[in-house]
Amino acid sequence: MLHVKNLTASIGGTPILNGLDLDVGSGEVHAIMGPNGSGKSTFAHALAGRDGYEIAGTATLDGVDLLDMEPEARAAAGVFVGFQYPVEIPGVNNMYFLRTALNSVRRARGETEIGARDFLSIAQEAMDLVEMKEGFLYRAVNAGFSGGEKKRNEILQMAVMEPLLAVLDETDSGLDIDALRIVASGVNALRGPERSMIVITHYQRLLDYIKPDFVHVLVDGRIVKSGDHTLALHLEDHGYADFVNHDLDDAPERPLSGATR
Amino acid sequence: MIAGLTYPTRRDEAWRYAPHDVLRQLLFGPSVESTRLLPAALEANIPVLEGPRIVLVNGIVDAERSDLSALPAGLRLSTFDDARSEQPELLAAHLENNDDPTVAPFTALNVAFGRNGAVIQVASGHAIDMPVQVIDIALPEATTNTSCTGVVIHLEEGASATVVETKIGHGDFGGSNTRTTITLGDQASLTHIVLQDVAPTQVHLGRIEVTQGVGSVLRSHLFNLGGRYGRVDYDVRLDGEGALVELTGLYFGRGNQILDQQVTVVHTAPDCTSRQSFRGILDDESTGVFNGGIDVRPGADGTDAEQSNDNLLLSDRAEANTQPRLEILADQVACKHGATVGQLDGAALYYLRTRGIPEADARRLLIRGFADQAVDTVNDEILRTWITERLQHHDG
């Protein structure tokens, strides 16, 4: 599925990712945790294709090299990134946006486009998943949405796009407990043998709801520790201080199958 | 030219951005019947909305294309020729021009030569469901290349109506000079749509003068799209207590177009509300002008006035000029104004592209979203769809 090898990214000469290695198998859910400024969001956007980074290394999805592709081509290849700060787009109707997005990737893949009526039922199903009311579809994309509504809208988009790889960047930030539960249950419903997920978070709290197969600690743009979900619990108790000092002895030793080596 | 009348110059604030060399090529005079057949492209441009209409070609009523049959109860729709005998007082009020000719020179020309037009009168208490249309077509002749026409809209007490004015044209020069006078009786309500889409090499000079009575409502939507120079002036007087005016505008320029809106809202009565909301999209080397005035006269206490002008520049050679003019001489006045000039939001473009939408489509989607915030203020779905279709050939 996803193979990331020695990925580096810098902005204006300032290094942010410093040789990141990660393998994510089909159907696996990986959590990436790390302190502020460790490069978590940069990793998400390096995969999505944001401009402005100097990038080196490799990142392939099902053998396809992502790093030379435009963002829209990566989406067509099956990459979906849920934004930490979803962008407000006044004047563009959410439904129209969703259908345009879905039909754009279908067109890029040589598949037939979906008409308005068929799309409505796809959207309807996705909305049930994140407990959204229909009125949501007719509002402008994210414009005037609450923090929780924006994050639910991201999961709604993921449900419609059906990606091979979903990268969720701090999807839990700014959510109250009810919204967190809704977002997490939406994510869980979208887990499947054909879909890999990377859940980026600062707090262990989200992982109470979305149980990852693997947990990685990202510090200074590199993965410095990998383990199973108990690693997250350790971080909850001890924070990142150990890892920031690059003293890993304190962390519990766990088998690392499938994770970064 | 009329004696005493001079062309405006760049020193006149209201004419600062006008292409003065182009204005000087305009030739005014009595209307001349077009010797040309309407080109097919223009014929296809004539809107196909159901309902009564008056069509003017080069300032002369085109009886064949007009439809004055089956008018709903309460509506009188007449040409100036008919109104001259049947509604002389309405026409006289329209032709009585109080504007200072040095300030509004083209209005003086319009009054002098605009012997044709449409008179729309709605009787007290009547609500007219279907839009009443006036379509002004500029198909210039070499002698008089700029047609002059008028539209008189008079809603009696408690009446309501929708009027759609379309200005189109064909040819390499000339254009149209139109003047609309609107009087709204107490509690009357008018939705007024102006679609200006003359040929890219032509000039359109439009002026809309409004007088509103107690509790009356005007919702006006301007789509200023066509012309080498496309200009629409609004002069709205809120003379009746509690009147409301909402002026919404969209201008969309490309090439070397100059799209100019000169707006003045005068509050003379207490507790009136005015909103001016104009959006501009400017591509290539086009220029947008919004000169918006709020004039709160002594005694207009409790005025609530707002003005906004937002511009989207699609090219680094495009230019937006925005100028608020506020004069407040009353008490307890709430008055807000704001202007923005920006480019397409890079973060939004990226967001759309990560959803698989190719860059060119994403740009179009954002431009359309910006425009739709003006289009969406039109409540009627049929009219909204019609405007969206008209906009389509502008957003390439």
Give the tags.
heterodimer; A: 261 residues; alpha/beta; Rossmann fold; 6-stranded mixed β-sheet; 4-stranded antiparallel β-sheet; 12 strands; B: 396 residues
List the helices and strands and how they pair.
The complex is a heterodimer of chains A (261) and B (396).
Chain A lengths: L1 E10 L2 E11 L4 E5 L6 H9 L5 E8 L2 E2 L5 H7 L1 E4 L6 E5 H15 L7 H14 L10 E2 L5 H15 L3 E5 L7 H13 L6 E6 L12 E6 L2 E6 L1 H10 L2 H4 L17
Helix pairs in contact in A: 2-3, 4-5, 5-6
Chain B lengths: L19 H4 L16 H6 L7 E5 L2 E2 L13 E5 H7 L1 H8 L9 H9 L2 E7 L9 E7 L7 E10 L4 E10 L5 E10 L4 E9 L5 E10 L4 E8 L4 E10 L5 E10 L4 E10 L5 E10 L4 E10 L7 E10 L5 E10 L5 E9 L3 H9 L4 H17 L5 H12 L4
Parallel strand pairs in B: 1-5, 4-6, 5-7, 6-8, 7-9, 8-10, 9-11, 10-12, 11-13, 12-14, 13-15, 14-16, 15-17, 16-18, 17-19
Antiparallel strand pairs in B: 1-2, 3-4
Helix pairs in contact in B: 3-4, 6-7
Explain the overall architecture.
Chain A is built from eight helices and twelve strands. Chain A has helices at 40-48, 71-77, 94-108, 116-129, 147-161, 177-189, 229-238, 241-244; strands at residues 2-11, 14-24, 29-33, 54-61, 64-65, 79-82, 89-93, 140-141, 165-169, 196-201, 214-219, 222-227. In chain A, the strands form three sheets. In chain A, strands 6-9-10-3-11-12 form a six-stranded mixed sheet, sandwiched between helices. Chain B is 18% helix and 41% strand. Chain B contains eight helices and 19 strands. Classes of the chains: A alpha/beta (261), B alpha/beta (396). Chains A and B meet through helix 2, strand 6, strand 7 and helix 3 of A and helix 6 and helix 7 of B.
